[in-house]
């Protein structure tokens, strides 16, 4: 796996473009600057790795657009040492960005092909999540809860209750909610029973799939 000056230069430009689009958290931008996104895509698609677009991976899924990864990471408001649950491992790119920020990452993927691929690939390139799980993200990971942050990287038709229940007090759930189009929504746990909700614009994700599909 190579990460040449050309790749680094392209990445720097991508980071500049994300800054222009309104990403302000320098820790997030620095993490994106460090992760070789081209490693997470099939070779031959280098031209696509450092433009701000989503791109097909295997099993009808996509690696999220860099802006979306940056924005979701920013909305999580994580600091080094935080414990974060990711729903939808996919290519492993978002996971790698969180690991670069010093976060302890737990990640769940429901498609076996993607789960296996990411489980082998991430450690191979030096990224070590705390836990990678093959399972259903709607349920979260109660055995490892509570989390400082939970990030859902697929469009959720509704907000899964177990995910809210697995937040620490002060913790944040960042979740795109909707069917065709999703509203990026943040739930902050204020107390055992109270959550504050804020909305952050429209996105288009692949759907968060349930038991029936
Ligand atoms: N975070 C990924 C984005 C992947 S796209 C990345 O950086 O590449 C969304 C992913 O969510 C897909 O891999 C899809 O298979 C997965 N997914 C969909 N429904 C899920 C569910 N119920 N539980 C866990 N993962 C799910």
Which helices and strands occur, and which strands form pairs?
Elements: H1 5-20, H2 26-34, H3 46-49, E1 55-56, E2 62-63, H4 66-76, E3 83-87, H5 93-100, E4 104-109, H6 112-124, E5 131-134, E6 147-152, H7 161-165, E7 167-177, E8 182-189, E9 195-203
Parallel strand pairs: 3-4, 3-6, 4-5, 6-7
Antiparallel strand pairs: 1-2, 7-8, 8-9
Helix pairs in contact: 1-2, 2-5
The structure holds S-adenosyl-L-homocysteine.
Explain what you see:
This protein has 213 residues and is α/β, with parallel strands linked by helices. The chain has a single domain, classed as Vaccinia Virus protein VP39 (Rossmann fold). It has 7 helices and 9 strands. It has helices at residues 5-20, 26-34, 46-49, 66-76, 93-100, 112-124, 161-165; strands at residues 55-56, 62-63, 83-87, 104-109, 131-134, 147-152, 167-177, 182-189, 195-203. The strands form 2 sheets. Strands 5-4-3-6-7-8-9 form a 7-stranded mixed beta sheet. Strands 1-2 form a two-stranded antiparallel ribbon. A hairpin with a 4-residue loop joins strand 7 and strand 8 (182-189). Helix 2 (26-34) packs across helix 5. The chain is globular. The structure holds S-adenosyl-L-homocysteine (SAH). S-adenosyl-L-homocysteine binds next to strand 2, helix 5 and strand 4. S-adenosyl-L-homocysteine is lined by residues 61-64, 87-88, 90-91, 93-94, 108-111, 114, 136-138, 153-154, 206, 208-209.
Question: How do you describe this structure in short?
Answer:
With 213 residues, the protein is of the alpha/beta class. 31% of the residues lie in helices and 25% in strands. The protein has a single domain, classed as Rossmann fold, CATH 3.40.50.
